[in-house]
Design brief:
The chain is of the alpha+beta class. The chain folds into two domains: about 110 residues, Sandwich (Immunoglobulin-like), CATH 2.60.40.10; about 30 residues. Helices cover about 20% and strands about 35% of the residues. A six-stranded antiparallel beta sheet has the order 8-7-5-4-10-11, with no helix packed on it. The radius of gyration is 23 Å and the shape is elongated. The termini are far apart.
Amino acid sequence: MKQSFLILIFSCLFFATVGCGKQTNMPKLVPCHITVTDNGVPVAGARISMADESSAESLAINGITDSFGVAKMRTTYTKYTASGVPQGTFKVAIDKEPPNLPPQNVTDDMNEQQADAAMKKWEEEVDQLRIIPKNLIFISTTPITLEIKEKSNLNIDIADYKK
């Protein structure tokens, strides 16, 4: 009984000193909501990623828009995730999968060249259904830059980026 009590005391002291694994190096985060629209119409299911290209910190900042086109942004640092975004200037990428269409007109009697041509045509058709312009999909190509300050509610209309 005495041994169990000592183990309990040492365990409490250990966790009080070391902690329960809460990340203390997570940067200070501020609430951030981003609304994505297409000519004012909410875009549901869009994936938003943010990156501070000038920072050496390993942060993953992302969110997914709801039926109103609003994403509540979250930051992951190492293995810890929390709501919000650090203050600063970030590049913003947006992507949304086009409708899942089965490949058309590819048959078993086609040779490889014919099948490749049919698949290329199908990929072009799917790309036409993509509502997010290709240059917004990757951090390396996106022209969108946002400055995050205290509690940010930001709007992005992808129609502004369509050619």
